[in-house]
Design brief:
Blueprint: E1 27-28, E2 33-34, E3 40-42, E4 47-49, E5 54-55, E6 60-63, E7 72-74, E8 79-80, E9 85-88, E10 91-94, E11 99-100, E12 105-107, E13 130-133, E14 138-139, E15 144-146, E16 149-151, E17 156-157, E18 162-163, E19 171-174, E20 179-184, E21 189-191
Length: about 200
């Protein structure tokens, strides 16, 4: 077959132009959408949005340290649901074709709490951490992914789960704190012993 004939249908797409009111992102790929209204886009120059990305309404996306350049990366064909919040001090990466359901919270930082005599909001934010959501992962509604963690390729985080540790590739986690429910060993699914009273 002629290589020129293999375009995956991309040549059939209508012309695309970025919305006129788009914030000045570091990059905003073709056919991507940022739904209205948004709540806050903090430092859009520190945010990369790939092609074919969908970001739902009422989004909060924060690249909190402008001098670090791009610290939020949303890769091609990712989906970010409504009422989601993504916050980066170091780096947050949402991989290609990852899906984040509504009300998902992803952050590589959190408030410091060292001095009990001072209000927590005066104590600054944690630094030196990174969050990565792997290619093709699915993050369920209301989940929180915080700290210095990686959610693996094609992994699943259950609804309302709280992830504070790495999730391996091809693994399903659920709960607070998130625990492995099942994982694929390369040949078949392996179910973990369920939690509950002895």
């Amino acid at each position: 077959m002629d290589d020129d004939a293999s375009t995956d249908g991309l040549d059939q797409l209508p012309p695309w132009a970025p919305p006129a009111d788009l914030p000045p992102f570091a990059s905003f790929g073709p056919y991507s959408e940022l739904a209205s209204p948004t709540v806050s886009i903090e430092n859009p120059a520190g945010i990369h949005v790939g092609a074919f990305v969908r970001i739902g309404s009422y989004a909060v996306i924060e690249a909190l340290v402008p001098e670090r350049g791009v610290t939020v990366r949303i890769e091609d064909a990712a989906y970010i649901g409504h009422f989601s919040r993504i916050t980066a001090v170091g780096e947050v990466v949402i991989g290609e074709e990852a899906m984040l359901a509504d009300r998902v919270y992803v952050s590589d930082t959190g408030h410091l709490y060292e001095d009990v005599t001072q209000p927590i909001k005066r104590q600054g934010l944690r630094d030196g951490r990174r969050v990565e959501i792997g290619r093709g992962a699915w993050i369920g509604i209301g989940a929180a992914i915080v700290g210095n963690v990686r959610v693996g390729e094609n992994a699943v985080v259950g609804a309302n789960a709280v992830v504070r540790a790495d999730v391996p590739d091809f693994t399903v986690v659920a709960g607070n704190p998130a625990q492995v429910v099942r994982r694929h060993d390369g040949d078949a699914w392996q179910w973990m012993t369920p939690r509950g009273p002895a």
